[in-house]
Predict the structure.
Amino acid sequence: MDGSITIPKHIGIIMDGNGRWAKKRLLPRNMGHKKGAEVFQDITRYCNELGLEAVTFYAFSTENWKRPAEEVNGIMSLLKEYLVKAFDYEKENNRVIFLGDKSAFSGELLDLMLDIEEKTKDRTGMTLNIALNYGSRNEIVHAAQNIAKRVRDGQIALEDIDEKLFSDYLYTKGQPDPDFILRPSGEKRLSNFLLWQSAYAEFVYMDVLWPDFTRADLDKAIIEFNKRNRRFGGV
Ligand code: IPE
Ligand code: IPE
Ligand code: MG
């Protein structure tokens, strides 16, 4: 990309449109998820090449459990196969963090998640956040409960609670807020993604379905981001 372009520090990506991609091809929805997982790998590598500090992929929401068991099971096995095992985390310098409530996971998948987080925690390259069983409202409620417990136990005072302290109780603790949130598939909503963290993010919506998303689409989104005039409430 042209050197005059500012690369965002942290992009949040809502990987959407897998089901519609499969439907268009008369394929089962899980084939869309499989193609989507491949695109996830490639776009992660590209984010690394672009020099991002962090990227957050929304892979499974707290609401996605409503889907038919067959689809949920299919996504979980894909996660094991593609998003986790097949991901070349041994060779890349990424710090991998799973955002979300891990208590819903068990067995092999949970072990893999914990193992990857542990093995990559001292990496110095890009932070790769994978939001799994993630929901912002769930995240904020958990933060409130944990802060309340500490106040109750006398570990912190009520007056200590400020925006910085609150942020430290979120799954994204210590990370820069996303500069921009990208949603392919044509939908124009957040669907419970990074509500707190995206207070001042730029939103870019694209008509392409996630399984068709390419590096060139990410370039286009970054160029669009560069046209925005970010004021943060100032003049
Ligand atoms: C996103 O694609 C993947 C997940 C939510 C797990 P969808 O499965 O939501 O695809 P559409 O929106 O039905 O096309
Ligand atoms: C958001 O997509 C969740 C993920 C991409 C993981 P959905 O497809 O679940 O969102 P809605 O239902 O269209 O709002
Ligand atoms: Mg969807």
Notes: The pocket of IPE (ligand 1) is lined by residues 15-20, 60, 64, 75, 185 (CB under 6 Å). The chain has a mean pLDDT of 94.
